[in-house]
Write a structure and sequence with these properties.
The complex is a heterodimer of chains A (161) and B (151).
Chain A lengths: L1 H10 L6 H11 L7 H19 L1 H26 L15 H7 L9 H13 L17 H11 L8
Helix pairs in contact in A: 6-7
Chain B lengths: L3 H27 L3 E16 L2 E10 L1 E8 L11 E2 L8 E7 L7 E14 L5 E10 L9 E6 L2
Antiparallel strand pairs in B: 1-6, 1-8, 2-5, 2-7, 3-6, 4-5
Chain lengths: 161, 151
């Protein structure tokens, strides 16, 4: 068996044919080469781009934004210190002269509980009603109008004391 | 360093007021000497029947907050009287009520109770003013207003 193999190895031709070699070269060669000019252009643009952040102008822009944030915070704090967010109560708004006349049922120039009391007595007695007693403007003269008059009488902004 | 400084300043400016507000709230709620007490209001209408009244109460001294108002035991004024809701959490209030019922109180009658939050150890002083009192005919009557401190 050793003799047979020896004999076989001696006849083996290990050289490639020229055609096979050319085909392999064509197969594994890069299809398109990048020209060195393109490489340089790409590198130049990258350098310019990153150099901007290291320049004085770039630093200035970042600092400028930081100061803007600080200024915005200062404005917010100033607004809070002035208490601009505090809402005024609905019942403490000033009462207009027209509204005061409307709820002054007995026309004595003073709005008090007696105006509401007199209106309530009129409603309960089913006596003649005047259209101006429809204080809330709902087309009815009833207890809700009495409540409007009474609440007008106890408003804090009357300043009685 | 110069870049970080404004950011740190902004952070401090935002955080410090929030912390200060929180500590202030904790101080006001956790402070000793805050108590609640009722103030009973009486009107003496003498021999006349009392059908309507209006008065004003305010703190002349001490620190109080009005936390609630209720009517009295008499049937005519059992419901809560009229008052400005804006008076709650303040130290001044105007209270009024009327009754069209037939059975009306006479003499000294407790007409309302004001519930107060008293802040601090100082005993508050109250100022009462009767604005108007009237009988069943809506006619003004002489009357006297007084108060009693409850526990």
């Amino acid at each position: 068996m050793t003799d047979k193999r020896k004999h076989f190895d001696e006849d083996l031709d290990l050289r490639l044919s020229s055609k096979l070699s050319a085909d392999l070269n064509a197969l594994f060669q890069p299809p398109v080469g990048v020209p060195p000019e393109v490489d340089r252009a790409v590198m130049d643009r990258a350098d310019k781009h990153f150099a901007r952040f290291q320049s004085g102008k770039g630093r200035h822009l970042r600092v400028h934004w930081a100061w803007r944030i600080a200024a915005a915070a200062a404005v917010i704090i100033f607004a809070f210190s002035l208490d601009l967010t505090k809402k005024t109560g609905p019942a403490t708004d000033s009462f207009s002269i027209g509204e005061t006349q409307a709820v002054d049922i007995d026309r004595n120039g003073r709005v008090d509980i007696l105006d509401a009391f007199k209106l309530a007595k009129q409603i309960e007695s089913a006596g003649p009603a005047e259209t101006e007693w429809d204080i809330n403007g709902d087309g009815l003269i009833d207890r809700s109008d009495v409540d409007v008059v009474a609440l007008a009488a106890v408003r804090l902004d009357k300043g009685v004391l | 360093m110069s870049k970080i400084t404004p950011i740190i300043l902004a952070g401090i400016c935002l955080i410090v007021p929030v912390l200060a507000q929180q500590s202030e709230q904790e101080y006001s709620t956790g402070r000793p000497g805050v108590r609640f007490a009722p103030l009973h209001i009486y009107i003496d209408s003498g021999n006349s029947s009392l059908a309507a009244y209006q008065f004003e109460m305010k703190a002349a001294a001490g620190q109080i907050k009005i936390v609630g108002v209720e009517g009295c035991q008499h049937k005519a004024f059992k419901e809560a009287p009229y008052y400005d809701p804006a008076a709650l959490a303040k130290d001044r209030i105007i209270i009024a009520a009327f009754s069209t019922a037939g059975n009306l109180p006479k003499g000294r009658t407790r007409i309302a109770t004001i519930h107060l939050q008293i802040i601090g150890d100082a005993e508050p002083q109250y100022e009462l003013k009767l604005i108007v009192a009237a009988d069943a005919d809506a006619k003004e009557i002489p009357a006297e207003i007084t108060f009693e401190k409850g526990e």
